[in-house]
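It would be a great kindness if you could assist me with a short task in structural biology. The full record is reproduced below for your convenience:
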Amino acid sequence: MHIVYLHGFNSSPQSLKAGETAAWLAAHSPDIALHCPRLSPHPAEAIRQASALLDTLPPDTALIGSSLGGFYATDLAEARGLRAALINPAIRPDRDLHRFLGEQTNPYTGEVYTLDERDMAALQAQCVATPALDRYWLLLGTCDEVLDWREAARHYRQNRQTIFNGDDHRLNNWPKVLPDVIAWARAALSNSR
């Protein structure tokens, strides 16, 4: 089994959730290959990178996406018919990231880049208006300081949702729910064979 973890805006494969995922899989499910690519800060290139990785993996690969990575995971899951666990996913990053236009520095990698209107247009083009039924497991914190969890709950209303009262954008409950997410992904992949 393969899982692709897609990190969020100004994050990296060295993020805490990505590290927790890798550590748990190594300890409890070493048969699962985790892929956590370092995504470009430019959305069109990030989707190309993730798509190129998925081209090398079996068609029953599962996705995990956090924040902007959840937005990307939705676009890829819809295009390829995959299952995805979404951690506090961005719904309209073209709107939410508009205030970050200009020079940015990724705190994990030190990469300096410029976010511009072309990036916002690429994000708008990747929006999925109506996510497929029963393809996603949404994991939300009600005290998300970055995104409005209610917007995601509405957007994915026809999909499984776990809402953690009082949890934030980082989703401190991620290690607790991770075993169930992996079991869900395994079961979904087994049923598709």
Observations:
- The first helix runs from residue 16 to 28.
- The domain at 2-192 is CATH 3.40.50.1820 (Rossmann fold).
- The CA atoms of residues 39 and 46 lie 5 Å apart.
- The beta strands are 2-6, 33-35, 62-66, 84-87, 102-105, 112-115, 136-141, 160-164.
